[in-house]
Amino acid sequence: MIEFLDQIFVHTKGKLLSPLANAPDWVGHAASSLLNISAMLGVFMALFALMSVLERKILARIQNRYGPNRVGPFGLFQPVADGIKLLIKEDIVPFRADKVVHFLAPIMVAAPTILALGVIPYGRNMTPFAIDGGILFFFAVGSATELAVFMAGWGSNNKFSMLGAMRAIAQMVSYELPLLITVLPVVMVVGSLSPDAIVAAQSGYWFVVTPWGAAAFLLFFVSGLVESNRTPFDVPEGESEIVAGHMTEYSGFKYATFFLAEYFGMFAVSGLAVTLFLGGWQAPIDALQFIPSYFWFFAKLGALLFVFIWIRGTLPRMRVDHVMNFAWKFMLPMAFTCVLAAAIWHYQARGLAGWLWSLGIVLAAYLGLSRVLDTRKNLSARTYRFAE
Amino acid sequence: MSSAAFLVIAILTLAGALAAATLPKLIHAALCLVVTFFGIAALYFFLGAEFVGLVQVFVYVGAVAVLIVFTILLTRRESETTGPFNWGGVVIAVAVFCGLTWAILHTSALPQAAPQIEALTVKRIGEVLMTDYVWPLQCVGLLLTAALLGALVLVMEEKRR
């Protein structure tokens, strides 16, 4: 029974594909891929709708207001209303815009995030596309996003769009480095680039309980916040400074596509964080193995997404130069330290000694960096000279 | 099936390259070059070289294309004016193409040794890089670090002035 519930989606897929057993090989492959893609898109579109209303509700709760509560029970059907509104809105294209590039940009922003979702294991035997270099694939397609953001900024022929795109590319290129290097220790310890192998390697304990894993997880999460352009790193679309950044000249469903890409990017980065550090679809303790694997994956994903919203409701936007300095002066050295700490943990037979050694190295690097980077500015409460 | 796929990929790649060489606006040309990069990556995948294909996308689309775009943006002076068509470039390109074709046609075919080649996994590539080719790897790393420091020095000098 437990086994059946765990594999229910795998069995269903097998049942659905069984009429094609005699068909040529490539028909079976194509049907299987199509089934995977439609299931994945269905689940994540639903999650996107749910997330958009939940985000507004939680933000409202943080800010002491009600949030959307008009459409359906608790305002749960708000995304439907929003979707209809965005669909029937007029699509405005600026006269001097580069029409083709302006049209292609939203598609190019959304496509890589959907591709990146394809390599994440959602449950036991539930990876849509299990390829050998899955982690590499994730980052390879992710690197195409920068170009798409640039296309949006340049194609709109608007100063604010261009400024937003420049900021976006600068911060995404900078944070891609720590994002990649924090993945390295996991890949080194597991000895594989395949997400399935990484999840399988965490059957005993999750990597987040080791010092290097905890540090790498935090760094990865912060870099993920930047890569998905979320507060406090939303300088590319900073509303109070540059209207809406690269999305300024988009309206109607194209604008919605940008939003979809942002959320899908969040899902992808959180999904990879769960896979790399939080044990993927593994249950936290063996006694809880009876709950299906996909439930654990989505529970962890949901927890991370909540933290995304929580941070958005808590922290103000960072200044552009602070964002860049933080990437190069703090994130990058810390990421390299994680690699070193993981190597020492491995060569100390992955025991207690290694655990303590890696804790010492991470702590030393953290304290040293905070000492070196301390600007010795006396921060005190602001005094308002002319208001008192 | 596979030859049809190859044909589609090859046509897309060539079309992208042709557009990159002929389009009047530099940014359009750069974006078409990206199509070519993707096409080449698809060809690598097609040949079973998964790792090389991924690295192709990673390095060329993620880094080189962004670099080209940035260069165009930051040095944009007379981007709207287009000069006369560059016939000299065409001659050189045709000459290089003919030379390469000639060289390939005159190379004696190597004896087929396909069965001995083991499936090349990412892990195997990593092992070889860390054992047999560790010195070339280190040299490349040193070169890149030097280039990075050089770029930093250039930028800092500008700041001081």
Strand content of chain B: under 5%
**Sheet with the most strands of chain A?**
none
| Mean pLDDT level of chain B | 81
Distance between the first and last residues' Cα of chain B: 62 Å
Q: In the CATH hierarchy, what is the class of the largest domain in chain B?
A: Mainly Alpha
The ordered string of helix (H) and strand (E) elements of chain A is HHHHHHHHHHHHHHH
Order of helices and strands of chain B: HHHHHH
Counted by DSSP, the helix tally of chain A is: 15
Keywords:
heterodimer; A: 388 residues; mainly alpha; 15 helices; globular; B: 161 residues; Four Helix Bundle (Hemerythrin (Met), subunit A); 76% helix
Structure described in brief:
The complex is a heterodimer of chains A (388) and B (161). Chain A is mostly helical. Helices cover 67% and strands 0% of the residues of chain A.
Describe this structure in words.
The complex is a heterodimer of chains A (388) and B (161). In chain A, 67% of the residues lie in helices and 0% in strands. Chain A has 388 residues and is mainly alpha-helical. In chain A, helix 3 packs parallel to helix 13, helix 8 packs antiparallel against helix 10 and helix 10 packs antiparallel against helix 12. The radius of gyration of chain A is 23 Å and the shape is globular. The model of chain A has no long low-confidence stretch (mean pLDDT 85). Chain B is mostly helical. Chain B has two domains: 78 residues, Up-down Bundle (Four Helix Bundle (Hemerythrin (Met), subunit A)); 41 residues. The relative contact order of chain B is 0.06. Classes of the chains: A mainly alpha (388), B mainly alpha (161). Chains A and B meet through helix 6, helix 7 and helix 8 of A and helix 2 and helix 3 of B.
